[in-house]
Design brief:
268 residues, six-stranded parallel beta sheet
Length: 268
C-alpha cells in the first residue's frame, strides 16, 4: 500500500490599498515672557601661586528682560491620499506533495508611488522599484523509520552564554557592563569596586566605591581623574584619604571644602 497525497495552494492576491488623510490646521501663539535676575556675589580666581583676581563684581539683581509675544500660523495641510499598489503571490499555484516536495515559482511585486506630493510647496514624492523573487524549490526529504528505532535524546550545542546582565565581569554581586571586578552592583567598563559606573574607575578596597565618570580613584566620586572621597569635577585631590569625604568640586583643587579652580588648603 502506498500513500502519495498532494496539496495544491493557489495564488494569493492583495488588492490596492488607499489611505485617505483628513485636512490639518496648525497654529501657535506665545504671550510676552518677562525674566528677572537674582543677586550674585563677587567671583574670584585664587590660585596658590599668585594673589586672587576678581573677575566679576557683586550684583544686587532685579534686572528684567522681556520677550515679546508672537504668533505663528495658521499652517494648513490639505487632505490627501496614499495608495499602496496591489500584488499577487505567486503567479502560479504552489504544489506540495508527500513525501515532501515544495516548489514556489518566482513572482514580481510591482513598483509604484507610495508617498504622494506633499503640500506647502515641498513637492516631495517617492516610490519603490519592482521586486523580483526567484523560484524556490525544496526537494523531497526521505525519512525511513523502523518499529524498533530509538530516537533521542538529541543535543546539538553550538555556542552559548550563561544568563548574566553583562559580559566578562568577575564581581561578587551581579554587574552590568564589561570586565568589571570587585563587590559589583555597578555598570560600565573595567571598573574595580562597589557601585561603580563609567570607565576605569577604581578603589583599593573592592568592597567600597560608589564612583562614576572616568579614571577616578576613591569613593563617592564623579567626574574625571579625581582622587579621594566626596569629590566632583576634574583633576581634584582630597586631603582626607579615599574614605572620608573632602567635599571638593571644580578643577585642579587640592585639599578639603574647596570649590572653584586651582585652590589648595582648607576652605571656609
Amino acid at each position: 500500500m502506498g500513500l502519495d497525497p498532494a496539496v495544491h495552494v493557489g495564488s494569493i492576491t492583495v488588492n490596492p490599498i488607499t489611505v485617505r488623510t483628513p485636512p490639518v490646521l496648525v497654529s501657535y501663539s506665545q504671550g510676552a515672557v518677562t525674566s528677572t535676575s537674582g543677586p550674585t556675589s563677587e567671583i574670584w580666581v585664587k590660585p596658590s601661586f599668585f594673589p586672587g583676581i576678581r573677575i566679576a563684581p557683586s550684583s544686587g539683581g532685579g534686572a528684567t528682560s522681556t520677550q515679546g509675544a508672537y504668533f505663528v500660523g495658521p499652517i494648513s495641510i490639505p487632505s490627501g491620499t496614499v495608495t499602496f499598489p496591489g500584488f499577487t503571490i505567486p503567479l502560479d499555484p504552489i504544489d506540495i506533495g508527500l513525501p515532501v516536495s515544495l516548489t514556489i515559482p518566482g513572482f514580481t511585486i510591482p513598483g509604484g508611488t507610495l508617498i504622494p506630493t506633499l503640500p506647502l510647496g515641498l513637492a516631495l514624492s517617492n516610490g519603490i522599484p519592482p521586486v523580483d523573487i526567484p523560484a524556490i524549490v525544496l526537494d523531497r526529504i526521505l525519512l525511513d523509520l523502523h518499529a524498533d528505532t530509538t530516537i533521542g535524546p538529541i543535543n546539538v550545542p553550538i555556542a552559548g552564554f550563561g544568563g548574566a546582565p553583562g559580559f566578562g565581569n568577575s564581581t561578587t554581586l551581579p554587574s552590568s557592563g564589561f570586565f568589571n571586578t570587585g563587590a559589583g552592583g555597578g555598570s560600565g567598563f573595567s571598573n574595580t569596586g562597589a557601585g561603580m559606573s563609567g570607565l576605569l574607575n577604581a578603589m583599593s578596597d573592592p568592597l567600597l566605591g560608589s564612583a562614576s565618570g572616568f579614571a577616578n580613584f576613591g569613593t563617592q566620586l564623579s567626574g574625571i581623574l579625581n582622587r579621594g572621597a566626596g569629590i566632583s569635577g576634574v583633576y581634584n585631590t582630597g586631603a582626607l584619604g579615599v574614605v572620608t569625604a573632602a567635599v571638593v568640586s571644580g578643577f585642579g583643587n587640592v585639599g578639603q571644602q574647596l570649590s572653584g579652580l586651582l585652590f589648595t588648603g582648607v576652605g571656609p
